[in-house]
Amino acid sequence: MNLPFMDIFKDWAKNYDTAVGGHDEQYHEVFVGYEQMLDEVALNVTGTVLEFGVGTGNLSARIQKGNPLIAIEPSPEMRQIAIDKLGIEVQEGDFLRYPDVPHIDTVVSSYAFHHLTDSEKETAIGQYARTWGHPKFVLLDTMFESPTSRQDIIDWATAKGYSDLVEDLNREYYPYTTTIRSMLETNGYKVTMTQKNKFVWLVVATK
Ligand SMILES: C[S@@+](CC[C@H](N)C(=O)[O-])C[C@H]1O[C@@H](n2cnc3c(N)ncnc32)[C@H](O)[C@@H]1O
Fold it and tell me: Is residue 107 within 6 Å of ligand 1 at its C-beta?
């Protein structure tokens, strides 16, 4: 598997839980309310859940308390931390290549879907809808409402001197809210979207 962002997580894995705790100033605003957001995501899943990009397993820990969970993570470093933390199997895979699973009720992901290009996002959504008959799709991630709001945030981060964050915002594929809504509606979903902090939106899509 050759994924573009694995080197970042190789280095970031051991410090990731410090960042989500708000202790990395550059990423503080990205993770404001992180624990409460994951609680809300976990409340929105139903039935058998497939989680992509589990990272260090913070959302998985919540979901596995109430639902059968299939956990997928491509980074070996992140995967090992999640396995040690959760004591469950975390399988190697990614949004587009994953083990064969006969039945899924909910596909969920937090802070990870932006690693796909928009074209790959569209492919993934269509693939899940076809394979599992329109499972519920619950997504938590950074999104922008418009090119202007994207530029405003990049300008704000630049003025603050947050060079890593600026690089990240320019490099990864953070989508526009309108693009995500349209991809899901085209695939037959009804969509609700709620902004949770300066960066992050919660998307809940049902057939
Ligand atoms: C910022 S972390 C988020 C981890 C966790 N979901 C959370 O909310 O804290 C992003 C995760 O997505 C994973 N990732 C990167 N590219 C991916 C892909 N194409 N498919 C699935 N996961 C991917 C990374 O390895 C990393 O563990």
Answer: no
